[in-house]
Fold:
Amino acid sequence: MTAARAFVMGHPIAHSRSPMLHGYWLRRYGIDGSYERLDIPPAELGAFFDRFREAGWIGGNVTVPHKVAVMERVDRIDDAARAIGAVNTLWWEDGRLVGGNTDAIGFIGNIDERVPGWSEGGGRAVVAGAGGATRAIVYGLLGRGLEVALCNRTVSKAQALADHFGRGVTAHGSAAIPGLLVDADLLVNATSLGMVGQPRLEIDLSPLKPSAVVYDIVYVPLETDLLKAARARGLRTVDGLGMLLHQAVEGFRHWFGRTPEITPELRRILVDDIRAKTPGA
Ligand code: ATR
Structure:
């Protein structure tokens, strides 16, 4: 039997940390398989899918800029990918190629691990940002029964997302954040602000209740200024690295038939890699 081959495809793809984490799990479980890094420019996407079956791929991850374009190349789109409007994971089911999205599971799985019981009784979330990542976050939060206030520099983008999701989601400009924080149980940074090389995210956390949780999806640096400020106030915090780890679990399970564990050793491998490539992270 030939080894099971999975991949991550994108353009560029050199920066992806997915091969590191799936490679760790393949070694840990002694699975005869591979997880390859594929640089596929947009012009070659069609040719890649034309040969998908004969190439023997068992599936893979899809990243920028292909997450929307691959939706037309699969046989079925799962509910999450349809609601989020993007595919990040491909796998076979009964001979059909499925395009799914595990980013919402990753987002929720991470906070479930870090703050057990956080969503009991629903609550209110304030989400800063209205880009690609926000769609998966909103889908995940609505699935847990939270009400979501989307706050974005460009209000029209927040409004478009609120219209897309409908009930339970409202749209606001960034200036509304302080007022919304008063009743919030969760604050999420889903913007690129706070990432190495980007401006800081300037949010005054003082209106938040002491029971509130602050979640930053940025993971380079591992502890952003927002999380530092939250920790200094005694608030519970969740970092973005866990989201990357948790979104990978479902893909690995589909391809290799085993639910992999997020071990402290795996987290350490990724942290070391981030620190090695980003001084000060
Ligand atoms: P992703 O796919 O990671 O969500 P994106 O789609 O580029 O990335 O979205 C980036 C988000 O960060 C957007 O919400 C963006 O706000 P705009 O919609 O107004 O562009 C937000 N963002 C980026 N730079 C920003 C800045 N300097 N100030 C405020 N918001 C910013």
Summary: The longest helix spans residues 241-256.
